[in-house]
């Protein structure tokens, strides 16, 4: 029985060419703008395709829940005016 032939570096590397890792195709959550994987629920806000699927606040402690609500309120645009209008704004109308 004879010894098998040696494979060159080129043949070895050609065989291993498809073993490389491909970059991940991550997207962004439309609600909180955090990075998410496609076809997965957002771990930050619990939404999937515009619907809230998981209540992320249910598992948190009171302190963490308050902080999370504050973050979510900051990311969502509010239509309510901020505080009372100043004297200059009132005099313009």
From TrEMBL:
Signal peptide: none
Superkingdom classification of source: Bacteria
Gene Ontology process terms (BP): translation
Pfam families: Ribosomal_L32p
Keywords: Ribonucleoprotein, Ribosomal protein
InterPro entries registered for this protein in UniProt: Ribosomal_bL32, Ribosomal_bL32_bact, Ribosomal_zn-bd
GO molecular function list: structural constituent of ribosome
Regions of compositional bias (Basic residues) in chain numbering: 1-21
GO annotation, cellular component aspect: large ribosomal subunit
Region ranges (Disordered): 1-29, 63-93
NCBIfam families found in the cross-reference section: rpmF_bact
Family statement drawn from the similarity comment of this UniProt entry: Belongs to the bacterial ribosomal protein bL32 family.
HAMAP family xref list: Ribosomal_bL32
Name assigned to this protein: Large ribosomal subunit protein bL32
Protein species of origin: Candidatus Ryanbacteria bacterium CG10_big_fil_rev_8_21_14_0_10_43_42
Higher taxonomy: Bacteria, Candidatus Ryaniibacteriota
Gene: rpmF
């Amino acid at each position: 029985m004879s010894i098998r032939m040696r494979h060159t570096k080129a043949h070895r590397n050609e065989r291993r060419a498809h073993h490389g890792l491909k970059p991940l195709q991550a997207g962004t959550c439309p609600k909180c703008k955090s990075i998410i994987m496609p076809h997965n629920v957002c771990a930050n806000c619990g939404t999937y395709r515009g619907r809230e699927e998981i209540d992320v606040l249910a598992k948190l402690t009171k302190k963490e829940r308050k902080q999370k609500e504050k973050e979510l309120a900051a990311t969502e645009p509010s239509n309510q005016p901020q505080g009372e209008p100043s004297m200059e704004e009132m005099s313009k109308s």
